[in-house]
Specification:
Length: 401
Amino acid sequence: MESKAELRKKATILKLALRTQGVNVLDKVPDVGTKIKEDILGLYKIDDVKILKPNEIVIYENITTKLVHNPSSPFKLFKNNDDFYIGVGKKRKPLFKIGFSKRPKHYSLHTSRGTPMKHVAQVMGADCLAIAVNKRCHYFTNGDFCKFCNITPTNVESKIDRISDFRDLVETIKAAGKYYKFFDLTGGTFADRDEECEHYIKIGNIIKDTLGRQNYSGPFSLSPPKNLNLLEKLHETGVDVISFNPDVWDDEVFRKICPGKAKIGKDHYDKALQKAKELWGSGNSVVQFLVGPWESGKSLLEGVQYHLNRGILVNLTTFFPSPKSTLRYSHPKDLREILDIYVKYGKLVRESELYPNNRGSILTSVSANRSSISNEVAKGYLTEDNYDPNKDLDFLQGEVK
């Protein structure tokens, strides 16, 4: 019988494999939309599936990933008797018996204005209430959008309000907020970045006042405001961590992949991160990068080390080509290469002594950080000491791309 440590390691590897290759859903999952959390077009459309499907796969313990349906994936989601499994290859060799996230109660409720609460705030994992502050991005109006992003096309298709009414937010947080530890606010960039920050401040105060909490766990992930003094008002809302997401480290690639963010400039991102560190403390100001095919692992890890040296925690998320994005036909990095990046990243984070922190997570919990294995490697589920790339991928039956 395999130990918990071995199962956590395998589940972490499988999570990343599913993030980069998706899963072919062979059998219909019952009770989606009643007992099991369904997929909702909150911010990004990650696949072209039109059918009602589970939002997440729970692989082992609370190791959770977003369910990305890919008919050509070597990984299969299938039913055997009353249980569901992830298998691999033509023979569907079972890798893990898996579960699905429970449907939140507020998904069945409406606000007094008639807005479905599930359109106002979605749940990530088991413990994070996520609010899309702006479900479109200003950069789609001038061609400066990030080339991997499809936020505006997703919102146009969903017909969900671009910006939620404050009354809807109050009622949804009142109904659901008490059940969750983390409050994840993110979304597209406003035309006026100071206005964007002020909008986050208003929602932060709504969370604080509605729940009667002086402090609560974030993250709030927003664009760096022009007026960095606005971050002082954001700090007063009680949120415990702020994240800024340039996504790319290499300067030339940054201008090519994220032209709008590149115009903000890395210097301004640095100033915003340092201002946030002064207010929230070391490790509570976070920068996010996306592990994609446009940038080498060496470059990414240089960016990770640069920020860790300055007391800024780093979160790495994983690229998957999304429909209607410019890079929809691009391929993620090779799984072995991404695992190597994450293992080295995890070591750097632990050596920085910025983690573990009082949240016990890089940003959100293991279950809520569904497009990344940052928390898993920081927690030591997969390390240079316990990971052997020549053996530990054997259970995937050679299905490594």
